[in-house]
Specification:
This protein has 173 residues and is mainly alpha-helical. Helix content is 82%, strand content 0%.
Length: 173
Amino acid sequence: MVSLFTVSTISYDDFDNGNAFLFTLPITRNHYVSEKYFLGLLLGCMAWVLATVLGIITTVLKDTLPITDLVQSSLMILPIMIVVQAIMLPFQLKFGGDKGRIAMIGAFGGLAVITLVIVKGAEAIFNIDLVSLLDNMPTVSMGVLIAIAIIIALLMLLVSMKISLSIMNKKEF
């Protein structure tokens, strides 16, 4: 949640035509986009580290579950944070504060509908049950799965940043 404060900074930058003033200062559009991504990652990672440390301390004091399980769960949260940020920032930069939130909700809804259509369509047309196919895939160790998830999330963040740079370079204030 802390990494989403970056979205608020974009809304405040848009407020009262603040971007027009902002870009009269010695800052480029590329620096602006890079700063938003860096701020989101910085805030998100700081909150993630704090939550993980507090979780480890609590786990050690109360002896509720193995620390390795807590660390694995914590590591799975990291790519989720990165992916949410990679999706949100281009929408906020393209549409602004309120319209960006509505467009993002529409995008997530559209993604859910597309996924449902693909799963049901594969079952109806090709007689392939994708859910059972995923269930029967060979198991991968949790460490490999976490590493793959983080690499995919970082690649999505880079693609998102390229999209955001393109949006900001085309935007007029």
